[in-house]
Amino acid sequence: xxxxxxxxxxxxxxxxxxxxxxxxxxxxxxxxxxxxxxxxxxxxxxxxxxxxxxxxxxxxxxxxxxxxxxxxxxxxxxxxxxxxxxxxxxxxxxxxxxxxxxxxxxxxxxxxxxxxxxxxxxxxxxxxxxxxxxxxxxxxxxxxxxxxxxxxxxxxxxxxxxxxxxxxxxxxxxxxxxxxxxxxxxxxxxxxxxxxxxxxxxxxxxxxxxxxxxxxxxxxxxxxxxxxxxxxxxxxxxxxxxxxxxxxxxxxxxxxxxxxxxxxxxxxxxxxxxxxxxxxxxxxxxxxxxxxxxxxxxxxxxxxxxxxxxxxxxxxxxxxxxxxxxxxxxxxxxxxxxxxxxxxxxxxxxxxxxxxxxxxxxxxxxx
Length: 367
What we know:
Helix content is 43%, strand content 16%. By secondary structure, it is of the alpha/beta class. It has 2 domains: 2-161 and 347-366, Rossmann fold (3-Layer(aba) Sandwich), CATH 3.40.50.2000; 164-343, 3-Layer(aba) Sandwich (Rossmann fold). Strand 9 (220-224), helix 8 and strand 10 (247-251) form a beta-alpha-beta unit. It starts with a strand and ends with a helix.
């Protein structure tokens, strides 16, 4: 089977969508089989992929809007796979899309009117015209089915994962290297998120201020992630913090630094108003780091009782959660062990196997 792939999301600097796609594609290639992958992308730098049955086809510039149909037809594809909701409406006999979240629907104020309309349109087109729909969590699947009940029958859940290297300790020398690089001089809280309104980073800073004001414990707060539409609000809130000298802004963190950052953190915090999955919470659990998250349906699904959950948007509850999570108690130790165990149930290899099985299922169904 010849499978065309929207490979624009193979990039060096990865957030959740790019991580999901790169990890799955790498493992799809390693699985071998009869599948050949034709990767359509522009001219930007691309991360390394394993050797296997794949090749690149240039499709930069306006090709995505106007010229991709001809390129697809010329490749005689059996299927087209998109790692996002958008997909070519012509040129491939069958298409599979991916829905990572419905944040435009659940947190509409986080998006411009134009972006909400664009997301709504592509979600509706996927529901009507895609032959298969991948969702990254059961929670996202339920949200999507509530909007488009008629499309539920062509949907499957394929979650992100971790691999063997995600577990275990990190060498002390590597931890020290990362501490030095990011200015981490003692105990610290870690938040890994883009500066987007739904990530609630100003709310986290407010909770951090309240936590620090209630006791003598000095913990730094590392806000790790690249800028976004909420950057000015985040920076303004940090500037107003009485503890701003202990709040560190790292910008984008490369994959090579993440293991040590997770491992050395006193606590990982993801205080979002909405998530489709929350890969960093899974990665932190695998590394044995305590996790504090908003009490959202998706975190009940992914983290279960392994993470402490607090009401989203409640700064007092979040501050109390920070205090409860960093205390060395049997409950903290139990959550750490439960997190490691829970993370072992999410493996990239299993997700890739499920995805290639879905490719074959959709292809057979349409034959």
